[in-house]
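thoughts on both lines:
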Amino acid sequence: MCSSDIKTTIANPKIIDLLGEKKDEFFTSLEFFPPRTENGVKNLYARMDRMRDSLSPLFSDITWGAGGSTAELTMDIAVQMQKTGHVTNMHLTCTNMEKDGDPIGAVHDALQKAHDAGIRNIVALRGDPPAGEEEWTAADGGFTCALDLVKYIRKQFGDEFGIAVAGYPEGHPNAITEVKDGETMTETEKVRCCVHDGVTYVCKDEDYKKEMKYLKEKVDAGGDVIISQMFFDADTFITFVKDCREIGITCPIIPGLMCITNYNGFKKMTKFCKTRVPEALNAKVESLKDDADGIKQFGIDFGIEISKQLLESGTVPGLHFYTLNLEKVVYGIIDGLDLSGKKGLTGDDSDEKDMKAVGSAWAREGDKVASIYAQGTVKAVRSSGITEIDVENWVLAGGQKPKMYLRTDSYEKVFD
C-alpha cells in the first residue's frame, strides 16, 4: 500500500486521463535519458525547459538504467521534470533490483519515492539480464517480467499510477531469430523481417502470436497505454496496431519514433535491437555516414515522411519522440508537420558531446572493452560468462586480429 504520509506536492495527472480529455486532439511527447556527466545533466535540464515551452508535450519520459544503474539519477531527473511543469512518465525496470536480499525492495522504494514526489505515471519494464546471460532467472520471490511489475503496482498502489507498457511491432528482440538457409518466410513475416550484416532475422509468426498474447496480458493486468519500440517502417507499425485490435487490445497505442541524429548511433541501435531498416533508408544513411550535418537533415526529412504516413493511417493518437537528449531533429520534424503552431523552430545541439548515456556496465556485442592485456570489441558473450573479444591494437601476419576469451570480471566497458 502507498504510505499514509504522502507529501503535499501537487500530483501530475495520469496520461490515460489526459488522453481521455484530449480525445481527437493530436499530441506529441518526448523521451530523455540520464546523461553521464554533471554538465550533461545541467544541459539536459535547460533543454527540457526549452522543449517544454516550445512544444508543450503531453508528457515526458525519463529512462531507467539496466539493473538500476541510473536509479538515483533517474529519480532526480523525474522529480525535476515534475517540479518544472512536465507530466513525468518515469521508466522503471523490475529485474536485478534486489535490496538487502529483498528482490522487490528497491522497486517498491522507487515507486514510493515517485509517488511522494507527485509523479503518477510509470513505464513498467522488465530490464536486461545480467552479463553473460541471455535470459533472466528471477531470485526467489522476485519479479520475472514486466507483467509481474504491472501486477505489483496495481496490488500495492491501486489506481494511483497510470501505467504504460512496451509494445514491439517487430517482436521483442529476444523473440527475433535468424532465418536459416532454405527457410522461407510468410507474407506477414516479411513485413517484420530485418537484415543486418547480410543476415536475415525475423520474429516468426508463432512467436509473434506469443508476443501479442503477452502484451494483452500486460494491458489486462493494468497497463493503460502502450508505447511502441522504435521502428522505421510505418507499415510495420500500422499492421501491429491492427493485430492488437483484433485480439481485443483497446487501449491507446502510441508510436515511438527514434530520431536519426548520427550514423554510428543509428547503426548500433538498429543492429542491437534487430530493427527492420528498409533498403532505401539503409542506403541513404550509408551515403551520409561521413556527413554529420547531412544525416541530421535527413533525420528531419525521414521523420516528417514517416510521421505523415502514421497520421494519414488514422491509427495514432500522437507521436512519441525518442529525442536522444537532442532537439534539432525533433524541432525540424514537428516544424515540418506544423504541429506546434510555432514556425521556424530551431534547436541547439552544440552540447551533443555531453549527451552520452550513463549506460549499462554490462558489455554487449559491439561494445568497446578494456582489460590489462588490450582493448577490443565484444564479439559475443557466452552463457558460461566467457566473453569473446576482437583485439584492436594488435595485428598479426596477414592483417588478422587476435581474440581474447575473458571472464566478465576481467575487463571493463569503455564508454565513448
